[in-house]
Structure formats: structure tokens, C-alpha cells
Specification:
The structure is a homodimer.
Chain A: H1 25-45, H2 52-59, H3 63-70, H4 73-101, H5 108-116, H6 126-131, H7 133-138, H8 143-168, H9 175-193, H10 209-233
Chain B binds a DNA duplex (30 and 30 nucleotides) through helix 1 and helix 3.
Chain lengths: ~230, ~230
DNA sequence: GTATGTTTGAAACGGTTGTTCGAATCAATC
DNA sequence: GATTGATTCGAACAACCGTTTCAAACATAC
């Protein structure tokens, strides 16, 4: 019975999914139009608050197309998140690599800039602003779906940046103190990422990356140094 | 036709709703059991991700009870948020009042402590930890519902704390710089509030208010001062 | 008791949800 | 031109959604 069902996305452990050997150009545009619409709607109304039909309708596609390409609604969210997060992660690691390949030890500000700059990457244009929708979603959408993705994408990054901060801060600073400070860095970043949220009902707070990143670096570097100094003085 | 429909919650502009002149003790426990269940479930799965039936079932009540007491699902969310946010707002204002009633001008750290302490109020016990669920929800649930509530509850608070910070920081610091810094304060706070989120699927990050508040004050005070100093040097 | 207004319960309403199915369409290969 | 596999579409599925309805149960005042 040749009931073949060739889902492009991962099946459990079957033969390699044959990832679209010949992806027709229309298939590419179908996938991307779905991702674009999903990104916009998930950002505005959240995952549970957005119906698959709303996405496909906005994309001008059929519901079954979404299932065919992404395996369902959850797969669509995952793909949407991954598309925007992957470049951020890669940018962070690349900048940190460059920093550590240099001879002299990196300063706290440099490590933080390597972490923050790719977050606001892509300039101030629409694509960059849109890309930042993920921040809000990361902390609100189904944890059993987003949680593993965060660990998979950000696990190595967080470890490496914690190490780099430990090396840049005064020696003897407790690891837990650094972890706590790093969480605050992330928090401040996420909050400013939402400065231009593509959320309906919230008026944007005009800000461009060129303005935000230096402030963020200045603020968080001083914060981390203060934590280390207080630890030192004890 | 005496088809009376005495909703305890607000009707548009009709006569005062007669807010339960004789609230039977069972009615109180009904409302509170609903609020407790709603709080737990909304925190874990979000507003749209939680069905009203799941809430009423967990509370051991009927669906109509929720509609009767809160006017529907949205009213239930609003009541849930309000119950936890109101004390925080009042605590912040009270501490700021006390600070300003004193003779000497408050320091940055004191203003920040007045802002942060009530946020982590209630100690480390379950009620306090549970109360913090709101932070996550505030930035993810339907903006057209939560947005007005935020402005209503936090509008005055934010304005007053911005003024207090402006007075405590070196004179001449640009207002926008302070607003930006304040957003980072909020971001760092929210992030640490989620240190023990009652979210399924995310392992908690053990931390108690006594440990977090001083770190938060230290970190953000240094950050704000750094922003002001850079502004000064220009 | 009766009367009055508040609170609960069970069932049903219309509408929407994510997903599945089977046939139709398309592009490329033999 | 037939075969093969990838893609698209519309229709249908069962399950669930928030809300409403109506009657029973309740407490309190007369």
C-alpha cells in the first residue's frame, strides 16, 4: 500500500526525511509566506491566541500546506522561532570567538557588546524589528515546546559568556553572583527588545539599536562590576 | 418581568451593582478557590492556553459560577491580576512616601529599594512565590485586556518613581536617559521574578527575596549612575 | 410560613479548534 | 507518454471553546 507521507520535517527515527531534494521555487515561497504570517501573528496574539487558520489565511495558503511543511501548528512555531534565533546565536559566538582570538584579555564591556550587538542585529529596518518578536514569546509560550529549544540554542552560548564574564571580572568573584548578574543582563535586554514590540494594543516606544546597545552595555557593565565589587568587599 | 441578573461585577453605567450586601461565606470561598485555580493555571499555561473549564474543574466549581462572579473568562483574568498587583503598587507608593516625607533627599539605592522590595513581598513562602506569576503574564497575555490594567495600576507609580530617580541622580541627566534606565530596571526585575516561576516544564532557579533584592538594588543603581555619568561627560 | 434576592448546577448552544483524508495538480524522470 | 514523487486544495472530522439558559437550592427578612 503506497500510502507514502513524506513530511519534510523530522520523523522520529525513520529513514532520513529526504529534505526536499528538489524544492520547487513555489514551495520555498509557500514556506516563507507561512513563516512570515506566523511570525507576525504569534508576536501579536501569542501562540495559543493565534489559530492556524488565521495564519494560513494571512499567508494566502491552505491549512494543509502548513501541516505538510511544518507538521502542524507547533512545528510552525518552532520553525518561526528558529529562523530568527539561529542568526543571533551565531552572531554572538562569532563575536566572542573574535574577541578571544585576540591577544589581550577582553574587557567586560567587550564581552557584553558581543552578546548584545547580534541581538539587535539587522539595523532598524522592519525585518530587524520584526525579528525581535521572539523575545516576548520565549517567556510566554508553551514551555514544553519552547523550553527545549531555548536549551538547545542558547545552552552553549550562555555557558561561554558566563566563562568570558568570569574572566573579565575581578578574580574571585563567585560564579553564582555572575550567573545572577547575567540573568539581569538578559532581563534588561529583553525589556528593551520589546521597545518596539509588534504587539497590537501597545504603542511602540521609538528606539533604534544604535541608541540602545551602548546604553545597555554601559548599564549592565556597571551593574556587573558593582556586584563583583560588593562580593569582593565582603 | 423580574428577570433580574445581579452580576456582582461592574455593569456599564447602571445603578450601583449592589456589591454583595450579604456575601455568604460560601460565596467568598467560591470566588477565592476560583482565583487560586485561575492563578495557578494562567501562570502555567497562559490565558489563551487555559480553558475556563480547566479552571473551574480544578477549583471544584461549576462554569457558571465563574461567569456569575467574574462575568466571564476575561473578568477572571483581570481579577486574578488585580489581586496580586494591587498590594505591590500600594507597597511601592507607601515606601516612596515614607522616603520623601523624610528630611534628607533619598539616594538612588533607597528609591530603587522602595520600588523593588514590595515586588518580592510576602517572603519566600508559597503565596509570595505564587504571586509573582503575574510578571510573566503581564507581557504575554492579550494586550487589549492587560494593557489598560497596567496603565491603570502602574501609571502613577512609574511617573513618581521616574521623578524620584531624576531627583536622586546628578542634576542635568536627560529624562529620556532615565526612562531608558528605568525600563532596564524593570526588565532585570521581571527576569529575577521568574527565578521561581510556577511554570510547568521549567526547573526553578532557587532564590529567595532576601538574596535577590540587595543584588538587584546594587546592580541597577550602578547601572543608572553609569548612564547618568556618561550623559554628563558628553 | 411566604417572599426576595443570591448563589449553584447541569445541559445545551453555536462556533472554532488542530488535524486528517483523498483527490487533484504540478514538475521532473525514464 | 507514462511514472513517480512533491505539493496543494477543499472538505470533513471529532473535540473543545466561552457563553447562555433555566431551574433548583440557598440564605435572609418579613
Amino acid at each position: 500500500m503506497p500510502r507514502s507521507q513524506p513530511r519534510p520535517e523530522e520523523l522520529p527515527g525513520a529513514l532520513p526525511p529526504v529534505p526536499s531534494e528538489h524544492p520547487s521555487p513555489s514551495a520555498r515561497s509557500t514556506k516563507e509566506s507561512l513563516l512570515d504570517a506566523a511570525e507576525r501573528l504569534f508576536a501579536a496574539r501569542g501562540f495559543e491566541g493565534t489559530s492556524l487558520r488565521a495564519v494560513t489565511q494571512a499567508a494566502g495558503q491552505s491549512v494543509s500546506a502548513a501541516h505538510y511543511h511544518f507538521g502542524g501548528k507547533r512545528g510552525l512555531l518552532r520553525a518561526t522561532l528558529e529562523r530568527r534565533l539561529r542568526p543571533v546565536v551565531e552572531g554572538r559566538l562569532r563575536m566572542l570567538d573574535a574577541l578571544e582570538a585576540r591577544g589581550t584579555a577582553p574587557r567586560v564591556e567587550e564581552v557584553l557588546e558581543a552578546f548584545l550587538r547580534p541581538t539587535f542585529g539587522g539595523g532598524a529596518e522592519a525585518a530587524g524589528a520584526r525579528a525581535r518578536f521572539v523575545a516576548a514569546r520565549l517567556f510566554s509560550d508553551p514551555p514544553e515546546l519552547v523550553g527545549p529549544l531555548i536549551r538547545e540554542l542558547f545552552g552553549e552560548v550562555h555557558r561561554r559568556f558566563l566563562d568570558a564574564l568570569e574572566a573579565a571580572l575581578p578574580p574571585g568573584t563567585a560564579r553564582r553572583e555572575i550567573e545572577l548578574g547575567f540573568r539581569m543582563v538578559v532581563g534588561a535586554t529583553v525589556q528593551l527588545l520589546g521597545a518596539q514590540p509588534p504587539r497590537e494594543g501597545t504603542e511602540p516606544w521609538p528606539a533604534v539599536p544604535e541608541e540602545l546597545v551602548p546604553r545597555l552595555v554601559r548599564f549592565t557593565a556597571a551593574g556587573l562590576r558593582a556586584l563583583a565589587a560588593a562580593e569582593q568587599a565582603r
